[in-house]
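From the thread on structure requests for the teaching lab: each student submitted one protein with a one-line request. Submission from student K.M.:

"Model DUF2789 domain-containing protein from Marinobacterium stanieri, tokens only."
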Amino acid sequence: MDTSTHTFSALFEQLGLASDTDSIEKFIRTHQLTSDELPLHEASFWNSSQASFLCEAIGSDSDWAEVVDELNASLHT
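Reply posted by the TA:
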């Protein structure tokens, strides 16, 4: 069992996105979600693979769940 803690940077890599600090900050600034009613994985800017990964990470409480929750909090204003 993998008990390692995943980082924000590693999550962005897993999603196929640029994972350096500046790119992550820019992504968060430009993809703000204004409603807590919209689940993270349903946001229009994800492709189907990214959305599936995010949904599964939360739904199955995987080892990615904590950092995905952090991303969700960062994107919701």
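TA comment: The CA atoms of residues 39 and 68 lie 12 Å apart. The radius of gyration is 12 Å.
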